[in-house]
Amino acid sequence: MRRKIPWITYAFMALAAVYLLAPVLWLFLLSIMTQAEALSTPPHWIPEHPTLANYMAFFSPSERQSLMGADAIAAMPRAILNSVIVGVGVALGNVVLGSLAAYSFARLDFRGSQTLMFAYLVSRMVPAIGIMIPLYVVMQRLGLLNSLASLIIAETAETLPFSIWLLAGYFRTIPRELEEAARIDRCTWLQAMLKVFLPVALPCLVATAVFGFMSSWGSFLYPLLFTAGSSATTMPVVISNFATDIHTDYGLLATSGMFAILPPFVLALWFQRWIVSGVTSGAVKG
Q1: Which domains does the chain have, with CATH numbers?
Q2: Neighbours of 117 (CB within 10 A)
Q3: 80, 83, 93, 85: which is closest to 209 by C-alpha?
Q4: Which of 72, 96, 189, 284 is deepest in the core (most CB within 10 A)?
Q5: pLDDT in tens, 65-93
């Protein structure tokens, strides 16, 4: 017999959905308003004259020639590509480096492992703005300023401690007998890890990759600090150019925001089952 869920649970879920989706809905409504309607007082919650002009400006050069944000719109395709490259690089870095470190914590019993894990978590609590000057000097000495490599390195270093903690907790739930059986079948340590261990840990690996991608996708401080010009600038920096001291185009700002939230939303929706499984198992056993 199915267990009945109290009505208060449904009410709480409905309130949570409204709390999460209302900002996205308002962003969409703002993106289909004219500038005059967006600035109207009192505000129009429902557009009286909806328009797709803001979206057309991103795809048609003729539509954006008369707009003050034309330069920012023209830089968006390259900025989106840069954000994707950085996001994929950070995701791969978290999976590869995080897996190797987490495996050591989960399977090797060495002195100071708990202290080292605690140090990783403490480093995650340091705000990025507190270390931006040393990071800038390091990137400058390495000749990595205004390059995507500097963003990948910085974002990976920031997200890696949490990824190690998450993966180590999940790795501890995997029986050692699987690896022992692979070693009996004459697999090397690397073969056992690649063919037996990591496929079992796939849900947590996916969760780690998605976490790394999303963290770097919305990052603003490091791209603003390390890059200049359109060659390495990412999307958050370009979006900020729609709001200046003398003019703010709320329609274009909202439209670019819609473009920004779409990839993470699709990614989370696509891998939601694996993300939930990987995060909950790693957190409970960590």
Answers
A1: 68-285 (1.10.3720.10)
A2: 18
A3: 93
A4: 72
A5: 556 667 778 888 889 999 999 999 999 99
